[in-house]
Amino acid sequence: MIDSKTKAATEDAIEWAILQGLSLKTAPDSASHAPLSFTPTAIDRKRFEDLKTSVPLLGKMIHRVSEDHAFLLNVIEPVAHGDPFFAALLAMHRQLKETPRLPLLIMRSDFMDDAKHGPKLIEFNGIAAGMGPFGQRIHELHSYLKKQWPERYANWSHADEGELIGNPAIERLALGIAKATLQIKREFDDKGPATFMMVVQSNEDNVFDQHLLELALQNKGIRTVRRTFRELHGQLSGGLKNRLLLADVGPIDCVYLRAGYDYCDYAANDIIGQVCCEALTQTRVFIEQHRVAVNATVSQQLATSKRVQMLVTGMTPVQLSRFGLTLDEAKAVKALLGEMLAVDENSADWMSKQPSGDWVLKNQGEGGGHCIFDEKILPTLQRLKPEEYQVWSLMRRLQPKPRSNPALLVRKGEQSVIDDLISEIGMFTVHIEGKPATEEQGYAGYLIRSKSATTTEGGVHSGMGVLDSLAYLDRN
After folding, report:
1. Domain coordinates of the chain in residue numbers?
2. Which residues make Cβ contacts (< 8 Å) with residue 219, sequence separation at least 6?
3. What's the pLDDT at 81?
4. Is 208 helix (H, G, I), strand (E, B) or coil?
5. Is the pTM of this model over 0.70?
6. Mean of pLDDT values over 26-49
7. Is 55 helix (H, G, I), strand (E, B) or coil?
8. Phi/psi at 406 (5° precision)
C-alpha cells in the first residue's frame, strides 16, 4: 500500500536523486530523476563474493582475446558478411594490427542470478560501459533512505535483508582511468595538466552519469573534455613520438568512448567527398594510431561481441587457458558462462521442437532492442538468410528468483508496485594492458538494473528497468 508517508519518502528520494546527479536529461534546460527502486535487492553473500572474486578474470581473458589479432580476424570475418557495421569494425581492425595505443579495458560484465545455477553471464560490455556512477549513487540513496525513513524503508525491504553492499564505482573507475592517463602523461613529460577526452553521442540524455565520472577525474587534477566523433573530424593531429593532439586543447592522454557502438555514431552526411561513416571511422582509427590510453579499442569492442562470447562459452577450461588463464582460473571463468548455440540452417527446425521460453535469440547489437523472445524466435530464424546465420546466436534463458515481497518503483515522479521484480547485475572491472588497475584485482563496483519478470527490455533509459542496489541476505 502506498500511503501518505510512503509518498513523502519517495518525494524526498526524487529530490535527493536530482540533487546528487541521479538524473536523465529531458531537454536542453531540464532533467528528470532516473527511474529507481525504493529499496535494494537481496543477494546471497557467497554468491556475490564469489562473483566479485571471479569477474576480474573475465577482464584478464578479454584483454588477451583483444590482443590476438589472428583469432579476431578468423572469428569476426563470418559475421562481417551479414552485418555491415561489423564489416566496418573489421576493416578498422585490419588497419590497427600494430599500434602504439595503451589499451585501457573498462568492462561491465552483465549477469543474472539464476535461481538454480547462480550468476551467469548475459553479455560483455567493452565499449560505452557506463552507468557505474549511477550504480554508486543509487546505493547511496538507499543508504540515505534507510537512515532517514527507517519505517517506510523496512516496509518495502526484503524480509531477510541484511547489510547493504558498498559500491565504490565512481572512485575506482576514476582511479583506473587516472592511472592510464597519468602513465601517458609521464611518458611525454610535457607541461600542462593531464587531459582526458570522452567521446560522446550528440543530444545524449545520459550525461549526468558521465559528468559524475568527469568530476571525479577533475578532483584528481585531470582536465576533461567532451567531443562527438563529428566534432573530432579534422581537429586531431599527431605530434612528436606519436603524441595525439586536439585543436584548441593540446595533448590528449586518455580517450574514453561512450559512443561508437552503433553505426549512427559515425554518420556525417555533411562531410563532402567520402562515403557516409567512412570519415568518422577513420577518426577512430587515427586515435589508436597514436600513443594514448584508449577504451574501448576496436579490438576490445570485437572481443566483447556476442560472437566471441558464444565461442568462449563453448570452450573447455583447457581451451580457455589459451587466453592467459591458469587452468583453475579457466574453470572459474567457465562457471560464469551460460549456454549459447550458434545459428545455422538447422536452427529453425531444432527450435520448433523446443519450448520457446527457454531461449533468447540475440544478434550482435549493443544496447536495448537486439534480443528476440518467446514466440517471435522461430519466425525470425525462418526468415534469416544463410549469410546472416553467423550474426545471431541462441542463449539459454536465465531464470532469476523474483523478490519475495512487492517492490516499490519510482519513475517520472510516479510510484508503482511490482510483484515479480528481477535484477540484472553488472560488474565493473578495469585493466591496463591486461593488468588490474584497482584494488581487488581490478574490480570496480557494480550496477543493478531491475524490472518486472514479464518485461523483456530492462534498460533504465531505453526500456522499463530501474536503478537498484544490493544488500546481503541475512541468514542469521
Report:
1. 4-338+398-473
2. 174
3. 92
4. helix
5. yes
6. 95
7. helix
8. -60, 145
